[in-house]
Write a structure and sequence with these properties.
With 100 residues, the protein is α+β, with helices and mostly antiparallel strands. It is 21% helix and 34% strand. The protein is built from 1 helix and 5 strands. The strands form 2 sheets. It has a 3-stranded antiparallel sheet with strand order 3-5-4, with helices on one face. A two-stranded antiparallel ribbon has the order 1-2. The N and C termini lie far apart (37 Å).
Length: 100
């Protein structure tokens, strides 16, 4: 896809790039009663699938890790660390990490 600059008429081609490493936080709230483990598990699973599918749509490959968990009455928050593993010009997304 190409976009033309309105000022200089140059052709611009935007490219989506996933950062090498990023942490995203998700919060689930509940007005009454305890949280269902099914709901928490399904939310984490679906968030991971969403991150992988989004990266794939951008031509990137990522791994998703659980970064943090916080819980208090009526609120559950988890952080996901997204690590880009796309190989670019001989570099790995996980710089300095060995792949076994």
């Amino acid at each position: 896809m190409s976009i033309e600059c309105p000022n200089c008429k140059a052709s611009l081609s935007p490219v989506a790039v996933i950062p090498d490493e990023q942490v995203l936080y998700f919060t689930i709230t509940n007005d009454g009663g305890p949280f269902s483990l099914k709901i928490i598990g399904a939310t984490i699973t679906n968030a991971e699938r969403l991150m992988v599918a989004t990266a794939k749509g951008c031509g990137e490959k990522v791994q998703v890790f659980l970064h943090s968990v916080e819980h208090e009455p009526g609120r559950f928050q988890f952080g996901m660390m997204i690590v880009n593993q796309t190989e670019r010009a001989g570099q790995r997304g996980m710089r300095g990490w060995r792949q076994w």
